Protein backbone atom coordinates (compact mmCIF):
# COMPACT_ATOMS: atom_id res chain seq x y z
CA UNK A 1 0.00 0.00 0.00
CA UNK A 2 1.34 3.40 -0.99
CA UNK A 3 0.96 6.41 1.26
CA UNK A 4 -0.24 9.51 -0.57
CA UNK A 5 1.09 12.72 0.95
CA UNK A 6 1.39 14.92 -2.13
CA UNK A 7 -0.22 15.18 -5.55
CA UNK A 8 1.40 16.71 -8.61
CA UNK A 9 -0.93 18.56 -10.97
CA UNK A 10 -0.02 19.11 -14.61
CA UNK A 11 -2.25 21.64 -16.36
CA UNK A 12 -2.40 24.63 -18.66
CA UNK A 13 -1.02 28.04 -17.80
CA UNK A 14 -3.91 29.41 -19.89
CA UNK A 15 -7.60 29.30 -18.87
CA UNK A 16 -8.77 27.58 -22.05
CA UNK A 17 -12.08 28.35 -23.73
CA UNK A 18 -14.34 26.28 -21.48
CA UNK A 19 -14.83 27.81 -18.05
CA UNK A 20 -15.30 24.39 -16.47
CA UNK A 21 -11.55 23.81 -16.62
CA UNK A 22 -10.82 26.77 -14.35
CA UNK A 23 -13.64 25.68 -12.04
CA UNK A 24 -12.31 22.13 -11.91
CA UNK A 25 -8.77 23.34 -11.23
CA UNK A 26 -9.92 25.51 -8.32
CA UNK A 27 -12.11 22.75 -6.88
CA UNK A 28 -9.32 20.19 -7.16
CA UNK A 29 -6.91 22.52 -5.38
CA UNK A 30 -9.42 22.85 -2.54
CA UNK A 31 -9.97 19.09 -2.45
CA UNK A 32 -6.24 18.45 -2.15
CA UNK A 33 -6.01 20.85 0.79
CA UNK A 34 -9.12 19.43 2.47
CA UNK A 35 -7.64 15.92 2.20
CA UNK A 36 -4.56 17.26 4.03
CA UNK A 37 -2.36 16.59 1.03
CA UNK A 38 0.35 18.79 -0.44
CA UNK A 39 -0.12 20.29 -3.89
CA UNK A 40 2.96 20.09 -6.10
CA UNK A 41 2.62 22.05 -9.32
CA UNK A 42 4.43 24.20 -11.86
CA UNK A 43 4.50 27.40 -9.81
CA UNK A 44 2.45 29.55 -12.17
CA UNK A 45 -0.22 32.02 -11.13
CA UNK A 46 -2.14 32.13 -14.41
CA UNK A 47 -4.69 29.94 -16.14
CA UNK A 48 -5.75 26.55 -14.80
CA UNK A 49 -2.41 26.34 -13.03
CA UNK A 50 -3.18 29.46 -11.04
CA UNK A 51 -6.71 28.24 -10.27
CA UNK A 52 -5.40 25.01 -8.73
CA UNK A 53 -2.96 26.90 -6.53
CA UNK A 54 -5.55 29.48 -5.50
CA UNK A 55 -8.03 26.77 -4.54
CA UNK A 56 -5.49 25.00 -2.39
CA UNK A 57 -4.11 28.11 -0.72
CA UNK A 58 -7.55 29.53 0.07
CA UNK A 59 -8.41 26.25 1.78
CA UNK A 60 -5.26 26.47 3.90
CA UNK A 61 -3.37 23.82 1.94
CA UNK A 62 0.33 23.16 1.67
CA UNK A 63 1.65 24.25 -1.73
CA UNK A 64 4.96 23.57 -3.45
CA UNK A 65 5.53 25.60 -6.60
CA UNK A 66 8.36 24.50 -8.90
CA UNK A 67 9.29 26.74 -11.80
CA UNK A 68 12.39 27.36 -13.92
CA UNK A 69 13.94 30.80 -13.80
CA UNK A 70 13.17 31.61 -17.45
CA UNK A 71 9.42 31.04 -16.98
CA UNK A 72 8.97 33.29 -13.96
CA UNK A 73 7.76 36.29 -15.97
CA UNK A 74 5.77 34.23 -18.49
CA UNK A 75 3.78 31.90 -16.20
CA UNK A 76 4.00 33.53 -12.81
CA UNK A 77 3.82 37.28 -13.41
CA UNK A 78 4.84 39.21 -10.33
CA UNK A 79 5.13 36.09 -8.21
CA UNK A 80 5.22 36.58 -4.47
CA UNK A 81 7.25 33.84 -2.76
CA UNK A 82 5.15 34.42 0.36
CA UNK A 83 2.12 32.90 -1.37
CA UNK A 84 3.73 29.44 -1.18
CA UNK A 85 5.05 27.60 1.80
CA UNK A 86 7.66 26.19 -0.60
CA UNK A 87 8.89 27.72 -3.86
CA UNK A 88 11.61 25.98 -5.84
CA UNK A 89 13.22 27.88 -8.73
CA UNK A 90 15.12 25.54 -11.02
CA UNK A 91 17.70 26.20 -13.70
CA UNK A 92 15.82 24.42 -16.48
CA UNK A 93 12.78 22.31 -17.43
CA UNK A 94 14.56 19.01 -16.89
CA UNK A 95 15.38 19.89 -13.29
CA UNK A 96 11.82 21.15 -12.78
CA UNK A 97 10.26 17.89 -13.96
CA UNK A 98 12.64 15.75 -11.93
CA UNK A 99 11.97 17.78 -8.79
CA UNK A 100 8.21 17.52 -9.32
CA UNK A 101 8.56 13.76 -9.66
CA UNK A 102 10.66 13.42 -6.52
CA UNK A 103 8.28 15.49 -4.41
CA UNK A 104 5.05 13.78 -5.57
CA UNK A 105 3.23 10.56 -4.72
CA UNK A 106 0.67 10.77 -7.55
CA UNK A 107 0.17 12.68 -10.80
CA UNK A 108 -2.90 14.27 -12.38
CA UNK A 109 -3.18 15.73 -15.88
CA UNK A 110 -5.90 18.36 -16.03
CA UNK A 111 -6.67 19.92 -19.41
CA UNK A 112 -3.70 21.75 -20.90
CA UNK A 113 -1.48 22.02 -23.94
CA UNK A 114 1.57 20.22 -25.28
CA UNK A 115 3.56 20.93 -22.11
CA UNK A 116 0.91 19.21 -19.99
CA UNK A 117 0.79 16.30 -22.43
CA UNK A 118 4.57 15.95 -22.47
CA UNK A 119 4.75 15.90 -18.67
CA UNK A 120 2.15 13.17 -18.09
CA UNK A 121 3.47 11.05 -20.99
CA UNK A 122 6.97 11.18 -19.53
CA UNK A 123 5.62 10.00 -16.16
CA UNK A 124 3.77 7.16 -17.94
CA UNK A 125 6.99 6.26 -19.78
CA UNK A 126 8.90 6.04 -16.52
CA UNK A 127 6.16 3.79 -15.12
CA UNK A 128 6.34 1.55 -18.19
CA UNK A 129 10.09 1.26 -17.66
CA UNK A 130 9.52 0.22 -14.06
CA UNK A 131 10.88 3.40 -12.47
CA UNK A 132 7.81 4.01 -10.29
CA UNK A 133 4.35 2.73 -9.37
CA UNK A 134 2.76 6.03 -8.40
CA UNK A 135 -0.88 6.59 -9.45
CA UNK A 136 -1.36 8.56 -12.68
CA UNK A 137 -4.65 10.19 -13.67
CA UNK A 138 -6.11 11.74 -16.79
CA UNK A 139 -8.78 14.19 -15.56
CA UNK A 140 -11.01 13.70 -18.58
CA UNK A 141 -13.27 16.68 -17.93
CA UNK A 142 -16.00 16.81 -20.59
CA UNK A 143 -14.01 14.33 -22.67
CA UNK A 144 -10.96 16.57 -23.04
CA UNK A 145 -8.51 13.65 -23.15
CA UNK A 146 -10.64 11.37 -25.37
CA UNK A 147 -8.38 11.84 -28.44
CA UNK A 148 -5.33 10.88 -26.36
CA UNK A 149 -7.06 7.81 -24.95
CA UNK A 150 -8.09 6.76 -28.46
CA UNK A 151 -4.48 7.13 -29.61
CA UNK A 152 -3.24 5.00 -26.72
CA UNK A 153 -5.74 2.26 -27.52
CA UNK A 154 -4.59 2.40 -31.15
CA UNK A 155 -0.95 2.10 -30.06
CA UNK A 156 -1.83 -0.97 -28.00
CA UNK A 157 -3.79 -2.56 -30.85
CA UNK A 158 -0.82 -2.00 -33.17
CA UNK A 159 1.55 -3.68 -30.72
CA UNK A 160 3.56 -0.64 -29.65
CA UNK A 161 2.52 -0.42 -26.00
CA UNK A 162 4.53 -3.12 -24.31
CA UNK A 163 4.30 -3.45 -20.54
CA UNK A 164 1.00 -1.60 -20.90
CA UNK A 165 -0.13 -2.67 -17.43
CA UNK A 166 2.68 -0.61 -15.87
CA UNK A 167 1.78 2.54 -17.81
CA UNK A 168 -1.97 2.24 -17.23
CA UNK A 169 -3.40 5.59 -16.12
CA UNK A 170 -6.67 6.07 -14.35
CA UNK A 171 -9.27 8.02 -16.30
CA UNK A 172 -11.53 10.13 -14.12
CA UNK A 173 -14.39 12.04 -15.67
CA UNK A 174 -15.23 14.44 -12.82
CA UNK A 175 -13.09 16.63 -10.62
CA UNK A 176 -14.61 15.41 -7.37
CA UNK A 177 -13.70 11.79 -8.15
CA UNK A 178 -9.97 12.44 -8.59
CA UNK A 179 -8.78 12.30 -4.97
CA UNK A 180 -10.86 9.19 -4.08
CA UNK A 181 -9.57 7.45 -7.24
CA UNK A 182 -5.95 8.15 -6.27
CA UNK A 183 -6.42 6.99 -2.68
CA UNK A 184 -8.15 3.83 -3.87
CA UNK A 185 -5.42 3.09 -6.43
CA UNK A 186 -2.67 3.63 -3.87
CA UNK A 187 -4.37 1.26 -1.46
CA UNK A 188 -4.75 -1.47 -4.00
CA UNK A 189 -1.32 -2.50 -5.34
CA UNK A 190 -2.95 -4.61 -8.07
CA UNK A 191 -3.21 -3.20 -11.56
CA UNK A 192 -5.43 -4.97 -14.07
CA UNK A 193 -4.19 -5.86 -17.51
CA UNK A 194 -7.48 -6.10 -19.37
CA UNK A 195 -6.81 -2.86 -21.19
CA UNK A 196 -4.69 0.22 -20.84
CA UNK A 197 -7.44 2.48 -19.60
CA UNK A 198 -9.05 2.22 -16.18
CA UNK A 199 -12.17 4.36 -16.09
CA UNK A 200 -13.42 5.59 -12.71
Write the layout of secondary structure elements.
Layout: E1 6-10, H1 19-34, E2 38-41, H2 47-58, E3 62-68, H3 72-75, E4 86-90, H4 93-102, E5 107-109, H5 114-128, E6 136-139, H6 146-157, E7 170-172, H7 178-187, E8 198-199
Parallel strand pairs: 1-2, 1-5, 2-3, 3-4, 5-6, 6-7, 7-8
Helix pairs in contact: 1-2
Kindly estimate the percentage of residues that lie in beta strands according to DSSP: 15-25%
Low-confidence runs: 190-200
Biggest sheet details: 8 strands, parallel
- Which of globular, elongated, flat, extended, rod-shaped describes the shape? globular
Number of strands: 8
Percent of residues in helices comes to 25-40%
Q: Which whole number gives the mean pLDDT?
A: 89
Please state the oligomeric state of the protein chains shown.
single chain
Amino acid sequence: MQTIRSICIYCGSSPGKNGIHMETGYALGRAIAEADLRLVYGGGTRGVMGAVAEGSMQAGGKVTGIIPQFLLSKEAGDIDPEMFDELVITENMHERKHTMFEKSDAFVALPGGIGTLEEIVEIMTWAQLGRHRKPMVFANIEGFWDPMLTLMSHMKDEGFLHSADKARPLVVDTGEAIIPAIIDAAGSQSVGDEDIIGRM
